[in-house]
């Protein structure tokens, strides 16, 4: 009997989490309660509709501000990142002194962070740091604003960790471009990218490779003093990146590599890598977040 009673209760609660009937107007509390039940069941699309209906019918009410805040969360969980960003911007603009402003900013950062990710890249085992990172840079700026304004917020620690991860991705994006130029013998461009990492993203996992590439490029470009100074720094801090002959370890790869359009379209999964073709160079270095 208990099993049947639990099943009946679940069915009843699920029925309450259905989308609001547009022909029937509910009270403010009824809209709010229905949204809470939908959120509890993970029905974020229906929760969004209830919260939107609440604000539409009760623009100034007891639950309006909470509904506006929960709308950001519901849209985020429903993978509506642009909608979540819009709702977050509106909440922050309407309630700049709200006691949960840090939460709204955190959700906004998450929405921007997630909108910069591509599940298709993960399926093909591609590094997201090698693609456009404009949304990730927006997320970094939002998280930085959060930890600056609310250093003791409950969400500050996670925001700081995400900033570290994003910063590592930015450094990897620059090194990806540097490797591109190095493999094609464009030493000045490779040097500019590797120096950018050293100067703007120190203490990232890409720093030793950037130092090694800079030392290599300085030497090949006829700047022995800069090459020696950079190599000395590399030996002191990252000896594993120096070979037995005291030279920086760099991966030159296949020089002047030519790839077919099919190979490029499938990120190297299909097609030849030695037919006549030309790659598109990476974009210029992005401004430091």
Automatic annotation (TrEMBL):
One GO cellular component term noted in the UniProt record for this chain: Bam protein complex
Keyword Membrane: yes
Location of this chain's protein in the cell: Cell outer membrane
Superkingdom: Bacteria
One GO-annotated biological process of the protein: Gram-negative-bacterium-type cell outer membrane assembly
PROSITE patterns reported for this sequence: PROKAR_LIPOPROTEIN (PS51257)
UniProt entry keywords in alphabetical sequence: Cell outer membrane, Lipoprotein, Membrane, Palmitate, Signal
Signal sequence extent: 1-19
Major subcellular location class: membrane
Residue ranges occupied by any Outer membrane lipoprotein BamD-like domain in the UniProt entry: 27-230
Keyword Glycoprotein carried by entry: no
Membrane topology: Lipid-anchor
Known function: Part of the outer membrane protein assembly complex, which is involved in assembly and insertion of beta-barrel proteins into the outer membrane.
Subunit and partners: Part of the Bam complex.
Family membership: Belongs to the BamD family.
UniProt-recorded name of the protein: Outer membrane protein assembly factor BamD
Provenance organism: Fluviicoccus keumensis
Protein encoded by which gene: bamD
């Amino acid at each position: 009997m208990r099993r049947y009673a639990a099943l009946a209760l679940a069915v009843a609660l699920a029925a309450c989490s259905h989308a609001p009937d547009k022909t029937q107007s509910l009270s403010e509390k009824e809209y709010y309660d229905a949204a809470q039940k939908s959120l509890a069941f993970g029905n974020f699309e229906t929760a969004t509709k209830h919260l939107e209906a609440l604000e539409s019918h009760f623009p100034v009410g007891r639950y309006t501000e909470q509904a506006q805040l929960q709308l950001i969360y519901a849209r985020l969980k429903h993978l509506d990142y642009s909608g979540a960003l819009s709702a977050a911007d509106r909440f922050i603009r309407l309630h700049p002194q709200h006691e949960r402003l840090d939460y709204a900013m955190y959700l906004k950062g998450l929405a921007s962070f997630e909108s910069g990710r591509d599940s298709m890249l993960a399926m093909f085992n591609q590094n997201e740091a090698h693609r456009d990172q404009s949304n990730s840079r927006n997320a970094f700026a939002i998280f930085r604003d959060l930890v600056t304004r609310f250093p003791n917020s409950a969400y500050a620690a996670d925001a700081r960790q995400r900033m570290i991860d994003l910063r590592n991705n930015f450094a990897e994006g620059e090194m990806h471009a540097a490797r591109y130029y190095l493999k094609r013998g464009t030493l000045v461009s490779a040097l500019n990218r590797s120096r950018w990492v050293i100067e703007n993203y120190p203490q990232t996992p890409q720093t030793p490779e950037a130092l090694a590439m800079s030392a290599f490029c300085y030497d090949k470009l006829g700047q022995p003093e800069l090459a020696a100074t950079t190599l000395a720094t590399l030996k002191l801090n990252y000896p594993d990146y120096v070979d037995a002959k005291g030279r920086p370890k760099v991966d030159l790869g296949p020089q002047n590599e030519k790839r077919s359009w099919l190979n490029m379209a499938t990120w190297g999964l299909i097609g030849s890598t030695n037919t006549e073709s030309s790659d598109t160079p990476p974009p210029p270095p992005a401004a430091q977040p």
